[in-house]
């Protein structure tokens, strides 16, 4: 079955006519695509022969991933000294990358859980890949706390394992909370993502042409037949998992921020961190979702499913969270000044004018605070290049922000005698680049082997899924995959 | 659950098998036993309802967990091999202590060495010896590592071929009659100064056999000028002993008398004893320093004047004139009368000298003027005359009689003898003259060209070299004999204050080396002495009457000859002789160094001394106390001069010294004039060296520490630094200035290229933070609680509320520490003592540059200036004040590191120690991040097991630490011998830090428990032990003890009002506290307002707290200080 052969090639421009009618509710799927088109188009991405660009892209990303893993192997075998860390900067790119990747994950969970609970139907077009992105980002993030320790082979001390030593982990340490928070987050995210995948996997199973595909999709589809009972249980499970995930969106990055907020280091020791970090995470995460979705929708010709309306909404969220983050930036400076604490004051002065000044001016001020302000303008939200530019700015800016918080705080703290400077080594750089290789490789595998858009959910938001829907030009019946929602 | 296992019934058919006679006989007892066996065994388990089955379950589970934890599979298999022949008196696990001494340039340093299983592991001062009182310095601490240096010379070499001891003995046997034939005329010795009476005795005996032999003492940093001046001023065999504890006013002219490296720890303690302020009404001495670069002494000064080293003569003359006018002393007048005032001098504030002179004059008999040993004879004579005029002789300056010593000749005389062909046989003991003898040491008789030592040494037919390394001198010698370390040999010495001390071996020579005494004994044709007979023979001459063995044993036990009391001479200054000598040597037109013709000052290095410690990793990595530079030396210059020649830190500069063109020899009479020889080029001495900007350095002056750039040593020192000796000539050994006579021009210019310098502290501005707190004595008396008004400490509540339960501090003894910043000189002995005690590895130059130095105690050094400067904007203070602050784990009661460790690897003990559990540490580095003092050290590489530092592999220079598993996992066996067995050797990936020497605490605890026996008197006696840093500290600035005991020294010190804790507002409740520094400026001095300013906030601090004081100084200050905000 060739999806593209059966579906008419109607690829409309970005500024769809539908959007120009201000009063009419803009349909979530443009051009009146029917269930069949949706199934064919999305399954087609998995079922069609592997395109050449995929092989090229996968070869590049996996090579980078392998090289990154080699760097990690080198670091583990030789010592953390192959990175540029020193005293006073005991954490730098390692934890920056950890926070960066963890933060990216949050958008996926927000889209899939919170927007689901809030009945934001537009989420259906993007939630699957955003959740996948979450998982892969968390995998990349989890690498760093694992490898950054001096004795990786002893990292199991972090787990509350009863040993004959009778020593438990230190439950007061935020690093331990991190371990619990991230592992919970990953587990729930995997379950949530997989649960949502089940009906679609069944679709793929049903459409599979080879025995192997049938077998594996069959295994993972868990015998899904689309029965009423199945749907009932599925919906309940999905709702429960959404409920479970929702606090995680807020908690995980709050816990990550505790790594800093509970310390005594100026610029770390800040009560504003939990909301600031969560906003930052959603901010960065949405930028990464757009970074991935904009090329994907062009390549797989999904402009009718991921419409300008979706991009517009995500841009608005970026604008909102970006403004929260900018407010937090301002508030940090205000509090530093208001506190009268000379160490705090110096630390923030140093952030702007110290050795890492350009990280702040470029990363935090331009990329994070100023560039999203373009999204006040509708034209900018609807110009794919402007959107992409802003997203790239935010991606970079959020990495810089974490770097400034971590290294900027550490490199000059209380005693000027121990002030230092951090310079990354090639191992630092390649380990980070390597995680992009891992992330993109996993994402490429995902779009190759799993439906990147939740077919069943998209169908639910099509007009024909509504039992009361009856417009003269629509003759479709509600297909098996669709089900009425209340 | 209980089951009784039934023994199977015996089969009734076939063969009968039985397992015991009981079974065969099948008695009722046997049956009973058979049935009872299992239940009887299981009975122990049934008591609490645990069946065998559940027991097995539990066992299985714990086995599984044990397997999961892999607790038994972590360590490689090691073997313990018992001694086949034990060291004497050894009780396993107990150290033995022996008194010994370390020979030094100005006298032996009395020591006590701890040995474990026959290997010395730690050096301390000898607490019984009154000059030592248990203190040591960095060199003594580090000399332990030299003992174990695997690259020390370990073979006899003859003409670059491997030889052995027997061959050398044969050679000496054959040599003796040859030398005796002409009374030893061609025989010469070139030795270092060791102050050993036994060596002197053997030398006398040797002179009896070879009356015409030459004995020459050479040490590149030994001051000939001072010896000569003392001789003519006070007669032969006199040594000047300064009594700093009796001096109220001290004026130092380029004298770094607080440099521990010179070994005179009694002077340092004497000086600091007058700065140990207990309360505001205590008096303090006052120190004036005139010097060209910051020294440890300059850092302690109350008033410091930057002045070129070559101009010290001029300022001494000015000072002497003022004192002569005031005191009308005839001897001083007779010295000065013939000296014309210099025509040109470096400009300085004359009020400064006026007031200082008045201060000195106001304290006759309680002042002291000291001159640097490297200043010329005239300066020394003027200084002696001034001290005499101020009635200081006999009070603050003692004239100590030394045992009569034989005349020795200098290396210059030896050089001219060699040139004249009078030396056939040369013995060189120690030193490395090829490396460090002065250049242009003599003029060739025929060509009148300057000769260097290597040329001369090549002219000697036979050179025997006794050396620690096969170095440059060995390469030009016929014989190289490995020298034994002082910890391997018998010997003796005189301390700087001429107390007689023994040198005992701690271990047999590790590498088969010989001592000087062994070699002299061999040359005497005497049999080899294994024991102390040679020293005993010397001791016998002065032994007290009575039982010799008892006296000898007491001598060895105490580590000094208590029955010998040094004698002092009546204070008599020989003014006329001195005046005559001064007149002949005085040049009143000394050139003032200028921007384009600066002076070059050559000094001994705080780390390398004269270069003898070049292969000592501990000293290489010890930050210079002033510049914080490791692994290298550099050309130090003032910020203004650096700007003038356009260099920044690490830029290469070329120092060129041009000497006048030598004249050709006059044509011999009678012969036709030879064809005109080609015009001779002027001699140019050049050194390309990295520049280092040193605030507080005088302009137009460049200081180069000697002792680096020594090739041909071990791998540690091979690439370290630049060889300043290349600039050093016999006429200008200490400073070089273009005076038109010996030196035509001096130029320092930038050359392309940069050199990586590794410093341990990059930021030197204290940024107005109240970390080092100081005040003037006057201010302290006005406001005794001034220390609490800095950094807002007085506003803090007594006890901050806490949400958490803190670890209980329930132990009867609670450990704490104080550091008195008023008497810490910054000498770094504590850094090295800690390194030796706690098995701290070195990390190499690159890793120091990366900020990964491992020292558990570091000495922070800040510059403070009345005029604010922003270091980030490239601003440098020109003439700042310098403060030191030793910084180690503060053992916070409320430690930020403890809460953040996820695996409980750093926790609090009941005795208040912040303890580190290496086995538990996984290396998240979170604790180090959260430490406000940044005193935690992380093992970024496997420093203890894998090599660090540069190595050529296939022509490419790589740092081996980055090769990780590709390098061999090994340490030299001798380095392992050095390790303290009571301290874990840390592996890669774990955090470490100061433990308050917990091993010493535990040792004391065990000893107390043993002593207590069944009684409950298990308290460790008050102040009965201390940490390694406190023990080594020459000034007792660091005090450790039980803060729960109000009578302990540390508690009494903590009760003083100068006591403060760092970063108190963080509520960390540090156990280590500091005592504020008090400076004692003379209020009449022009710079009085700019003294004790380190804790005055400026820049980012509002200065509100010290507002009163700052304002006050604003009014009093000179125009220089008007710029204060």
Beginning-to-end CA distance, first to last residue of chain A: 33 Å
Question: How far from one another are the termini of chain B?
Answer: 88 Å
The average pLDDT of chain B is 84
Instruction: Please outline the major beta sheet of chain A.
Output: none
- pLDDT averaged over residues of chain A: 85
Continuous helix count of chain A: 16
Biggest beta sheet attributes of chain B: 7 strands, mixed
Note the beta-strand portion of chain B.
15-25%
Task: Determine Rg of chain A (CA atoms, Å).
Answer: 24 Å
Largest interface: A-B, 65 and 75 residues
Oligomer: heterodimer
Low-confidence stretches of chain B: 39-43, 1098-1125
**What structural class do helix, strand and pairing data of chain B support?**
alpha/beta
Global morphology of chain B: globular
Shape of chain A: globular
Describe the structure.
The complex is a heterodimer of chains A (486) and B (1125). By secondary structure, chain A is mainly α. Helix content of chain A is 65%, strand content 0%. Chain A contains 16 helices and no strands. Chain A has helices at 3-6, 35-47, 52-78, 93-117, 127-147, 174-207, 211-220, 228-261, 273-299, 308-339, 342-353, 357-370, 378-382, 384-411, 426-449, 455-461. In chain A, helix 4 runs antiparallel to helix 8, helix 5 crosses helix 6 (174-207) and helix 5 runs antiparallel to helix 15 (426-449). Chain A is globular and about 70 Å long. Chain B has a 7-stranded mixed sheet, sandwiched between helices. A 7-stranded mixed sheet of chain B has the order 27-21-26-23-25-24-28. The longest helix of chain B is centred in the first third of the chain and has 19 residues, at 28-46. The chains are: A mainly alpha (486), B alpha/beta (1125). At the A-B interface, helix 3, helix 6 and helix 11 of A face helix 3, strand 32, helix 27, helix 28 and strand 36 of B.
């Amino acid at each position: 079955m060739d999806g593209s052969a059966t579906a008419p090639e109607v690829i409309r421009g970005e500024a769809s006519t539908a959007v120009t009618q201000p009063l009419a509710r803009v349909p979530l799927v443009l051009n009146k695509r029917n269930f069949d088109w949706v199934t064919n188009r999305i399954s087609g991405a998995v079922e069609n022969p592997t395109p050449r660009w995929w092989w090229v892209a996968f070869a590049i990303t996996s090579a980078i991933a392998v090289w990154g893993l080699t760097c990690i192997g080198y670091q583990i075998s030789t010592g953390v000294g192959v990175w540029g860390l020193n005293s006073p900067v005991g954490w730098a790119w390692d934890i920056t990358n950890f926070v960066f990747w963890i933060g990216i994950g949050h958008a996926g969970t927000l889209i899939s859980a919170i927007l689901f609970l809030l009945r934001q139907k537009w989420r259906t077009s993007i939630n699957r890949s955003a959740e996948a992105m979450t998982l892969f980002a968390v995998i990349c993030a989890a690498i760093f706390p694992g490898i950054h320790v001096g004795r990786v082979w002893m990292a199991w001390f972090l787990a509350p394992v009863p040993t004959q030593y009778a020593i438990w982990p230190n439950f007061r340490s935020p690093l331990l909370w991190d371990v619990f928070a991230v592992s919970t987050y990953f587990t729930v995210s995997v379950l949530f993502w997989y649960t949502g995948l089940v009906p679609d996997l069944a679709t793929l199973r049903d459409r599979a042409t080879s025995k192997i595909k049938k077998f594996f999709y069959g295994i993972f589809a868990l015998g899904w037949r689309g029965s009423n009972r199945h749907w009932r249980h599925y919906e309940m499970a999905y709702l429960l998992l959404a409920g479970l995930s929702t606090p995680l969106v807020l908690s995980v990055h709050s816990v990550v921020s505790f790594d800093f907020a509970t310390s005594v280091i100026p610029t770390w020791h800040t009560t504003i961190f939990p909301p600031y970090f969560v906003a930052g995470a959603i901010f960065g995460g949405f930028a990464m979702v757009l970074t991935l979705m904009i090329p994907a929708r062009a390549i797989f010709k999904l402009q009718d499913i991921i419409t300008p309306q979706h991009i517009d909404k995500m841009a608005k969220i970026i604008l909102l969270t970006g403004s929260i983050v900018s407010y937090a930036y301002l508030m940090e400076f205000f509090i530093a000044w208001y506190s009268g604490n000379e160490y705090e004051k110096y630390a923030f002065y140093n952030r702007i004018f110290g050795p890492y000044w350009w990280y702040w001016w470029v990363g935090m001020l331009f990329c994070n605070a100023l560039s999203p302000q373009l999204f006040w303008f509708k034209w900018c939200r609807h110009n794919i290049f402007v959107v992409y530019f802003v997203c790239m700015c935010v991606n970079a800016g959020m990495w810089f922000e974490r770097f400034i918080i971590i290294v900027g705080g550490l490199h000059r703290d209380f005693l000027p005698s121990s002030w230092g400077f951090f310079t990354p080594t090639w191992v630092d750089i390649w380990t980070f680049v390597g995680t992009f290789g891992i992330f993109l490789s996993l994402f490429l595998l995902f779009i190759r082997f799993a439906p990147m858009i939740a077919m069943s959910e998209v169908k639910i938001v099509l007009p024909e899924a509504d039992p009361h829907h009856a417009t003269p030009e629509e003759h479709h019946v509600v297909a098996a995959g669709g089900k009425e929602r209340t | 659950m209980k089951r009784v296992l039934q023994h199977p019934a015996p089969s009734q058919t076939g063969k009968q098998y039985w397992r015991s006679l009981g079974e065969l006989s099948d008695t009722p007892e046997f049956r009973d036993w058979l049935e009872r066996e299992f239940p009887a065994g299981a009975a122990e388990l049934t008591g609490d309802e645990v069946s065998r089955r559940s027991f097995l379950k539990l066992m299985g589970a714990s086995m599984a967990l044990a397997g999961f934890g892999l607790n038994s599979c972590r360590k490689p298999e090691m073997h313990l091999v018992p001694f086949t022949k034990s060291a004497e008196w050894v009780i396993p696990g107990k150290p033995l202590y022996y008194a010994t001494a370390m020979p030094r340039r100005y006298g032996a340093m009395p020591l006590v060495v701890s040995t474990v299983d026959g290997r010395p592991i730690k050096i301390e001062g000898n607490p019984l010896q009154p000059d030592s009182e248990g203190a040591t310095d960095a060199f003594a601490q580090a000399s332990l590592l030299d003992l174990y240096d695997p690259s020390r010379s370990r073979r006899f070499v003859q003409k670059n071929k491997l030889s052995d001891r027997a061959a050398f003995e044969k050679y000496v046997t054959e040599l003796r009659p040859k030398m005796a034939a002409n009374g030893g005329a061609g025989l010469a010795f070139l030795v270092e100064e060791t102050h050993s009476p036994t060596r002197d005795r053997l030398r006398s005996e040797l002179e009896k056999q070879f009356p015409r032999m030459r004995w020459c003492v050479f040490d590149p940093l030994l001051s000939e000028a001072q010896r000569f001046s003392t001789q003519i001023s006070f007669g032969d065999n006199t040594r000047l002993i300064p009594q700093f504890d009796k001096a109220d006013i001290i004026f130092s002219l380029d004298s770094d008398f607080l440099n521990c490296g010179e070994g005179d720890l009694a002077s340092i303690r004497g000086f600091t004893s007058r700065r140990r302020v207990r309360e505001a009404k205590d008096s303090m001495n006052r120190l004036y320093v005139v010097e060209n670069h910051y020294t440890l002494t300059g850092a302690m000064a109350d008033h410091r004047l930057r002045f070129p080293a070559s101009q010290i003569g001029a300022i001494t003359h000015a000072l002497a004139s003022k004192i002569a006018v005031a005191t009308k002393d005839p001897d001083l007048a007779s010295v000065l009368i013939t000296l014309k005032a210099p025509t040109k001098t470096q400009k300085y504030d004359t009020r400064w000298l006026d007031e200082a002179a008045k201060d000195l004059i106001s304290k006759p008999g309680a002042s002291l003027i000291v001159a640097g040993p490297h200043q010329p004879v005239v300066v020394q004579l003027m200084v002696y005359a001034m001290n005499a005029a101020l009635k200081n002789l006999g009070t603050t300056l003692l004239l100590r009689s030394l045992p009569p010593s034989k005349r020795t000749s200098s290396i210059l005389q030896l050089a001219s003898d060699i040139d004249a062909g009078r030396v056939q046989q040369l013995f060189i003991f120690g030193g490395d003259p090829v490396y460090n003898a002065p250049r242009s040491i003599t003029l060739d008789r025929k060509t009148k060209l300057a000769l260097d030592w290597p040329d001369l040494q090549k002219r000697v037919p036979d050179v025997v070299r006794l050396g620690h390394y096969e170095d440059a001198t060995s390469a030009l010698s016929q014989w190289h004999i490995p020298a034994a370390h002082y910890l391997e040999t018998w010997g003796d010495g005189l301390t700087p204050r001429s107390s007689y001390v023994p040198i005992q071996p701690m271990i047999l020579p590790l590498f088969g080396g010989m001592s000087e005494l062994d070699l002299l004994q061999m040359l005497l044709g005497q049999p080899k002495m294994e024991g102390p007979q040679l020293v005993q023979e010397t001791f016998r001459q002065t032994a007290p009457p009575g039982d010799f063995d008892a006296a000898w044993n007491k001598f060895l036990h105490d580590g000094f000859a208590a029955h010998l009391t040094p004698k002092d001479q009546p204070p008599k200054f020989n003014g006329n002789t001195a005046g005559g000598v001064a007149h002949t040597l005085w040049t009143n037109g000394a050139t003032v160094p200028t921007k384009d013709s600066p002076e070059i000052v050559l000094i001994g290095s705080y780390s390398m001394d004269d270069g003898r410690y070049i292969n000592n990793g501990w000293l290489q990595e010890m930050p210079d106390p002033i510049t914080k530079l490791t692994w290298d030396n550099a050309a130090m210059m003032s910020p203004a001069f650096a700007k003038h020649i356009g260099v920044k830190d690490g830029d290469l500069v070329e120092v060129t010294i041009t000497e006048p063109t030598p004249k050709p020899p006059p044509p011999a009479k009678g012969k036709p004039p030879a064809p005109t020889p080609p015009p001779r080029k002027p001699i140019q001495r050049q050194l390309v060296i990295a520049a280092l900007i040193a605030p507080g350095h005088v302009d137009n002056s460049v200081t180069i520490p000697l002792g680096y750039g020594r090739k041909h040593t071990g791998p540690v020192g091979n690439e370290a630094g630049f060889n300043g000796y290349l600039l050093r000539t016999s006429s200008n050994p200490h400073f070089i200035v273009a005076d038109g006579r010996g030196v035509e021009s001096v130029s320092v210019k930038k050359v392309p290229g940069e050199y990586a310098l590794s410093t341990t502290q990059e930021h030197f501005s204290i940024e107005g933070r109240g970390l080092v707190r100081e005040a003037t004595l006057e201010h302290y008396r006005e406001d005794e609680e001034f220390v609490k008004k800095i950094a807002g400490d007085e506003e803090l509540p007594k006890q901050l509320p806490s949400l958490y339960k803190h670890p209980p501090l329930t132990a009867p003894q609670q450990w704490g520490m104080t550091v008195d910043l008023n008497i810490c000189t910054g000498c770094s002995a504590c850094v090295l003592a800690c390194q030796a005690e706690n098995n701290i590895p070195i990390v190499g130059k690159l890793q120091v540059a990366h900020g990964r130095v491992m020292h558990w105690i570091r000495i922070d050094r800040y510059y403070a200036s009345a005029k604010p400067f922003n270091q980030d904007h490239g601003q440098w203070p020109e003439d700042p004040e310098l403060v030191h602050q030793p910084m180690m784990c503060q053992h916070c009661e409320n430690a930020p590191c403890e809460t953040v460790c996820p695996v409980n690897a750093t926790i609090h003990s009941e005795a208040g120690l912040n303890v580190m559990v290496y086995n538990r540490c996984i290396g998240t580095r979170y604790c180090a991040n959260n430490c406000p003092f940044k005193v935690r050290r992380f093992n970024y590489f496997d420093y203890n097991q894998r090599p660090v530092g540069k190595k050529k592999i296939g022509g490419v220079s790589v740092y081996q630490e980055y090769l990780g598993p590709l390098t061999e996992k090994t340490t030299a066996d001798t380095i392992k011998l050095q390790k303290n067995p009571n301290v874990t050797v840390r592996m890669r990936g774990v955090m470490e830090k100061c433990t308050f020497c917990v091993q010493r605490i535990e040792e004391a605890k065990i000893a107390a428990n043993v002593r207590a026996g069944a009684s409950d008197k298990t308290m460790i006696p008050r102040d009965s032990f201390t940490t390694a840093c406190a023990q080594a500290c020459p000034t007792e600035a660091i005090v450790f003890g039980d803060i729960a005991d109000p009578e302990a020294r540390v508690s009494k010190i903590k009760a003083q009002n100068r006591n403060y804790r760092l970063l108190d507002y963080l509520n960390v409740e540090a156990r280590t506290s500091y005592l504020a520094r008090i400076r004692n400026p003379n209020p009449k001095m022009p710079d009085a307002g700019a003294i004790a300013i380190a804790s005055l906030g400026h820049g980012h601090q509002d200065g509100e707290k010290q507002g009163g004081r700052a304002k006050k100084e604003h009014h009093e200050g000179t125009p220089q200080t008007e710029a204060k905000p």
